Amino acid sequence: MEAHIHNIRQLLSANGFPEPERLLELPSSGSGRTYFRIHFRDASRPGLLASFNENINENIAQYSFTLHFLSKGFRVPKIFARDESYRYFLLEDLGSESLFQLVQKGINSTTLRIYKQVITDLIQFQIKGIQGLDLDVAWPVRAFSARAVLWDLNYFKYYFLKPHNIRFDENKLEDDFQRFASFLLEAETAYFHYRDFQSRNIMLKNGQPWYIDFQGGRQGPLQYDLVSLLYQARARLPEQIRAELLEHYLQQLEKMLPGAGETFLKHYDLYIFFRTMQVFGAYGFRGKFEGKAHFLESIPFALQNLRQLLDNKTFPSGLPELRNVLEQCAKLEQYQETPLPQDKLTVRITSFSYKKNSIPYDPSGNGGGFVFDCRALPNPYREISIRDFNGTQSPVIRFLENRVEVQQFLRRVFDLSRQSIDNYLHRKFNHLQISFGCTGGKHRSVYSAERLAGYLNEKYGKQIEIRLEHLQLQNVKEGDA
């Protein structure tokens, strides 16, 4: 952090900017880029954003694309300066309001008008934006291709299907991936492919949409970016609104490319399924592997999208294994929460494996609660005679009950939990999540979760509803610790 602050101050000074009053690091998002908001002592001077990113190739693409789009008159943030390494940039500050924040408040005439403006602008990016664009700097590829499609499909396989224990024949699935890629590439791919055209990347300034995060752009199809906008999981656009916006896109497309609408629709449903799979891969990686909560919280919305797609959209024939895994995803139970009773507090207690599961998703939408790390406690797995038992069984229970440090740990857990529950009952809240993690999710975390559930049941009785779940015991494999 201190190194970033120093380097940004140096960049400001070298480009004639006054000494800033403060630099505020902004919350991280899905990318590897770090942003700082720069405030100057002179309140009349507009603020700036500073960005840092280690990926120089990506930064070069961002710089080149920005200059190109500005020359076209597109609303993208200006770049005021960069350092010689292409790691630090000074950017126009577009503020903090995004289209995503607006749509979370509901769809009204203003929201719909902005979406239609965004779609009109998208077509300009796609058709005019590609003209004269230096694709030699595009990163990591210059064009949409079978290889790029397979990257995304394997992202889906390795970061979503396998971590969720979806069953499939890998050889047959790879065959279906190849066929699916061929179907996608039947669409025309001569346009600018923004790649991540969704409402979080559309800022609102003076009532107009502005566009960011296009550095992954390349030459590609029309369909993908419209799908990214209309089927963004957390935006939750109603189907009739999607239909209205699709019609607006087709009308605007006809003005630019007469006759293109029919061929666009021929491949549209394919790209809805493709983008959905790419999103699942991203949510799995960013959420389950990197532990970023808002990606985990988006999975139920994406699964809801998937269920609707399987019921209402045409999935290509001849891809039985791919259809099979999508249907299994749609039935994942861990993201299907029974509605919470509104007249009492539900305490959800979960055990999990740091190696196998990562910190559990909070289905209430409250962002999670207590997470207790049990890995500092004595590990029953190290005792060969009891390692094949779990924390609900007598040999492991006896082992842990006889350890002073385990009982001290639990007393502290009980105290902290009781403090929150008493407060939540008084304030008439209806959900608290408490999670216990250990290495394998089989012994210490399970025992601790069971003990807390018993303690709370005895103390509060029918005042609360306890939902107890052991994530790793649902799918224990031989050798888990």
CATH C-level class of the largest domain is: Alpha Beta
**CATH level 4 superfamily of the largest domain:** Aminoglycoside phosphotransferase (APH), C-terminal lobe
| Overall mean confidence score, pLDDT | 93
- How many strands, which pairing sense, and closed or not: the largest β-sheet? 5 strands, antiparallel
Beta-strand residue percentage: 5-15%
Query: Strand order within the widest sheet?
Result: 1-2-3-5-4
- Within the CATH hierarchy, at the fold level, what is the topology of the largest domain? Aminoglycoside 3'-phosphotransferase, Chain: A, domain 2
CATH architecture of the largest domain: Alpha-Beta Complex
Number of domains: 3
Helix content: 40-55%
Order of helices and strands: HEEEHEEHHHHEEEEHHHHHEEHHEHE
What would the principal axes of the Cα set say about the shape? globular
Report the radius of gyration as a whole number of Å: 26 Å
Query: Structural class of the secondary structure composition?
Result: alpha/beta
How far is the N terminus from the C terminus? 37 Å
Number of strands: 13
Which ranges are low-confidence, i.e. pLDDT below 50, for 5 or more consecutive residues?
476-481
Number of helices: 14
